[in-house]
Amino acid sequence: MEEKMKVVSFTSLPVWQQKLIFDADEARRHSSSPYSKFKVGAAIQCSQPNTDPVVVYLGCNVENAMYVVTHAEQAAINEACLNEPEKPYIIAIAVVLPAETIDQHALPCGYCRQWIREFGSDDTLVLGAKLNSAGDIWQVEVVTLEELLPFSFGPNNLGK
Questions:
Q1: How far apart are CA 30 and CA 32, in angstroms?
Q2: Which CATH superfamily is domain 6-148 in?
């Protein structure tokens, strides 16, 4: 599969994508990560089919002494499930995390990619924002879920 991920500056993004990243960064600030010290935030933009309003849900990673972690993306999806009258549909997701090296991605892990796939589609936009040591967004990776999770298995494969 051809690599299509774009790496762009934050300021080159459309305003709605910048806002989604800011929301994810705000969620990241609430992370409870006393063991890894790796604070991650996520914001998902959802809508229901054939509806106009778009809603944003936030999540952050939460760790505990058993080394069980709720991932930020999973927390945001759980929040959407709690608040949507029907199964939420993810249009876009932004993930923000500290990533000071050029080769470290700020994209969802494989576990979270499958969670996103359950509530999104191949066209779901994924924005991975990297923070430097000062907490500034210095780079954003832009990709579709299909590019992150090629040949995925989702609800449509089960007739759902």
A1: 6
A2: Cytidine Deaminase, domain 2 (3.40.140.10)
